[in-house]
Amino acid sequence: QVHFVESGGGLVQPGGSLRLSCAASGFTFSTYAMSWYRQAPGKERELVARISSAADSTHYADSVKGRFTISRDNAKNTVYLQMNSLKPEDTAVYYCNKFPAGPWGQGTQVTVSS
Predict the structure, then answer these.
(1) What is the pLDDT of residues 68-81, one digit of tens each?
(2) Per residue in 5-23, pLDDT tens?
(3) Would you call the peptide bond into 100 cis, given omega within 30 degrees of 0 as the criterion?
(4) 101, pLDDT greater than 90
């Protein structure tokens, strides 16, 4: 069945960087666009970034444009999110999913605080 395992989160100071990874299984990874989402406490889950199946197209939320970069390795069934210049408002649980979405993984917590 479809399964996602997110990793790479942690506590980082404002201005710092993190690289998130998401290992996917249970479907033909190379044929699906992949997305990163995040959910902050008390807020709805929101789309952060999306990458096409062949990695030739990307889309970013305005709030992360120029700071985050989504990438993928179809040979490893893995999607990445490089996050630079992190801000306290980036604090959230980060999830990956295919597009259209399948079941959700456990996510990885990112906390940006001094």
Answers:
(1) 999 999 999 999 99
(2) 999 999 999 999 999 999 9
(3) yes
(4) no
Pull the structure tokens for residue 92. Answer: 């959230």
Query: What are the structure tokens assigned to 101, written together?
Result: 């979405």
Mean pLDDT of the chain: 97
Cα separation, 35 vs 64, in Å, equals 14
Give pLDDT, residue 66: 97
HEC string for 47-93: EEEEECCCCCCEEECCCCCCCEEEEEECCCCEEEEEECCCCHHHCEE
The 8 Å CB, 24+ separation contacts for 40-47 are 40/89, 40/91, 40/92, 43/92, 45/95
Which tokens hold the place of 87? 């801000």
Nearest to 3 by CA among 107, 109, 105, 80: 105
Q: First vs last Cα of the chain: how many Å apart?
A: 40
